[in-house]
Amino acid sequence: MKEWTLLGILVRVVLILLTMQSSSDGFVCEKDAVHCHTSLKIDNAFTMIDPINGPLFVDEGTLRPILQPDKEVSIENVITADGWNTTLPLLTANKSMPGPPIFLYQNQTITIIVQNNLINEAVTIHWHGIDQLGWPAMDGVAFVTQCPILPGQFFNYTFQPRFSGTYWYHSHVGNQRDMGLYGAFIVLKRKGEVPIKNQHIIHLQEWNHKFGPITLLKANLNNTSSSSESILINGKGEFENNEAPHEVFQ
Ligand SMILES: *[C@@H]1O[C@H](CO)[C@@H](O)[C@H](O)[C@H]1NC(C)=O
Ligand SMILES: *[C@@H]1O[C@H](CO)[C@@H](O)[C@H](O)[C@H]1NC(C)=O
Ligand SMILES: *[C@@H]1O[C@H](CO)[C@@H](O)[C@H](O)[C@H]1NC(C)=O
Ligand SMILES: *[C@@H]1O[C@H](CO)[C@@H](O)[C@H](O)[C@H]1NC(C)=O
Ligand SMILES: *[C@@H]1O[C@H](CO)[C@@H](O)[C@H](O)[C@H]1NC(C)=O
Ligand SMILES: *[C@@H]1O[C@H](CO)[C@@H](O)[C@H](O)[C@H]1NC(C)=O
C-alpha cells in the first residue's frame, strides 16, 4: 500500500510539471549558413507516465493506465524506456529521450542555448568529441571549464567544429547522462556526405532500474550496483519480454 501512496505523489507532481511532446526531428543548420542558433531545454520527466492517464503498464505491446487497465494510451506523450511498469525519474532535453539530434556542417559556427528548467539540479552539456580548439570554455565540463548552469539559468554554448563526424552531447554532471540527458551531434562533411534523410541515428544504451540518483548512490555506497536490466535502442527496449514498443526506422 505504501508504494501506491508514493505513486500517487509522483502522479500529482507529473501532472503539474509535464506536458510532454513527441520527440523532435532535431535541428539542422542550413548548408550555406555561417552561424546557426538552436536551444536545448532541460526538464525533469518520468518513464511510463502519461500526462493525463498517469502511470502505465505494457500489455502485449499496448500501453494501459495502471488505474484503468481497460483503456489504451498512445505512446506519443510517453517515454517508455524498457516499459518496466515502475515509474523512474528522467532528465530530458526538449522532453525526449534521447534528446533531439543536432546536425551542422564542418566549420559552421553553432550557438546552442541550454536552458535549465530542472527543479533542483545544476547541469552542463558536453559536446563529446569536439576538440573546442580556440574556445575551451565551451566544452561543458562542470567545475573544469564552467560553473554548472543553475536551475532557472541558461548558458550560451557557441563554437565551431573543425572535423566532420558522428558525435554526441550529454550532461557532464553526476549521472544525469544515464537518466536520459544525451543526444546525437552530427558534423556533416561539406562534400560527398550521405543526405540526412538517408541517415539513421542509432543510440545504444544500457538501462538500469537503479539509475535514480538516490538508489544508485545507495547501491554504490553498499557495493550492490549491478549490471543493467535492459538495452535500449534510441531510448526504447523491452524488459522481461514485456513487448514494450521498439524504435521504428523508416
Ligand atoms: C528544442 O526546442 C526548441 C523549442 O522549444 C527549438 O527551438 C529547438 O530548435 C529545439 N532544439 C533542437 C536541437 O531540436
Ligand atoms: C509489472 O511488472 C512485474 C514484473 O516486473 C509483473 O510481475 C507485474 O505483473 C506487472 N504488472 C502489471 C500491471 O503489468
Ligand atoms: C575549416 O577551417 C579551418 C580553419 O580555418 C581550415 O583550415 C579548414 O580548411 C576548413 N575546412 C573546411 C572543410 O572548410
Ligand atoms: C550567444 O553567443 C554568440 C557568440 O558570442 C552570439 O552571437 C549570440 O548572439 C549569443 N546568443 C544569445 C542568446 O545570447
Ligand atoms: C544496498 O542498496 C540496495 C540498492 O539501493 C538496496 O536494495 C539494499 O537493501 C542495500 N543493502 C544494504 C545492506 O544496505
Ligand atoms: C565490491 O564488490 C566487488 C565485487 O564483488 C569486490 O571485488 C570489491 O572488493 C567490493 N568492494 C568493497 C569496497 O567492498
Automatic annotation (TrEMBL):
<dbReference type="GO" id="GO:0005507">
    <property type="term" value="F:copper ion binding"/>
</dbReference>
<dbReference type="InterPro" id="IPR011707">
    <property type="entry name" value="Cu-oxidase-like_N"/>
</dbReference>
<keyword id="KW-0479">Metal-binding</keyword>
<feature type="signal peptide">
    <location>
        <begin position="1"/>
        <end position="26"/>
    </location>
</feature>
<dbReference type="InterPro" id="IPR008972">
    <property type="entry name" value="Cupredoxin"/>
</dbReference>
<dbReference type="InterPro" id="IPR045087">
    <property type="entry name" value="Cu-oxidase_fam"/>
</dbReference>
<keyword id="KW-0186">Copper</keyword>
<protein>
    <recommendedName>
        <fullName>Plastocyanin-like domain-containing protein</fullName>
    </recommendedName>
</protein>
<comment type="similarity">
    <text>Belongs to the multicopper oxidase family.</text>
</comment>
<dbReference type="InterPro" id="IPR033138">
    <property type="entry name" value="Cu_oxidase_CS"/>
</dbReference>
<dbReference type="Pfam" id="PF07732">
    <property type="entry name" value="Cu-oxidase_3"/>
</dbReference>
<dbReference type="GO" id="GO:0016491">
    <property type="term" value="F:oxidoreductase activity"/>
</dbReference>
<keyword id="KW-0560">Oxidoreductase</keyword>
<keyword id="KW-0732">Signal</keyword>
<feature type="domain" description="Plastocyanin-like">
    <location>
        <begin position="89"/>
        <end position="191"/>
    </location>
</feature>
